Amino acid sequence: MGFEIILQAIWIFLPAYAANGGALLVGGGLPIDLGRKWRDGRRIFGDGKTWRGFFLGSLIGMIVGFSLSTIASYLDENGLNFYGLNRFGDFPLTIPIVSSLCFGALLGDLIESFFKRRIGKERGENWFPFDQLDFVLGALCLSFICGSILHLFGFTPYNWFLRAFTPLHLLVIFILSPALHIVANYLHRKKF
């Protein structure tokens, strides 16, 4: 696996990484579940899943994604995109594509939190490998759905997801993401 594949995988998934990390950094405030409990007597999501984290984390990821799209477009126009960095579709289709990566990442994290509460795991308690891959699966699923809908309704000549994520890109993301997640959590706990 070459440097180019690793760079492309990180590039294309950076909006989801930024959304997931951003939600942690800017979160707080009103919990999404409003403090309510599920039938089992446990919180639905817990205090760690807040509206502010969900929306501001997604916004951070979208800013990163739109910035990367602009950079890749500039590199394409000037013949400098030697590594084939993804533009996240042509504007205005960049908006739903990048948004699906960001919101998908946080929806995946939210769904994982729901099931984590159901099995009795507390906030911050490790649930390997689900804690490390929840946002990855959410971002991939929602961006696949978005790419499929855009293609189905004729907005794009191809499914963006299927063209953007090759099996090698997915392999890099599934190997790299747990490692990044573990390091980021360690640094966050140490307050570096």
Layout of strands and helices, then pairs:
Elements: H1 3-26, H2 51-77, H3 94-118, H4 130-152, H5 160-164, H6 167-190
3D structure, described in words:
The protein has 192 residues and is an all-alpha fold. Helix content is 67%, strand content 0%. The chain has helices spanning 3-26, 51-77, 94-118, 130-152, 160-164, 167-190. The radius of gyration is 17 Å and the shape is globular. The mean pLDDT is 91.
Give a short account of the largest sheet.
none
**Overall mean confidence score, pLDDT:** 91
How many alpha or pi helices?
Answer: 6
Oligomer: single chain
State Rg: 17 Å
Sheet/helix structural class: mainly alpha
Low-confidence stretches: none
Per DSSP, what share of the residues sits in E-state strands of 2 or more residues? under 5%
Distance between the termini: 32 Å
Tertiary shape: globular
Q: Secondary-structure element sequence?
A: HHHHHH
* Helicity level: 55-70%
Strands, total number = 0
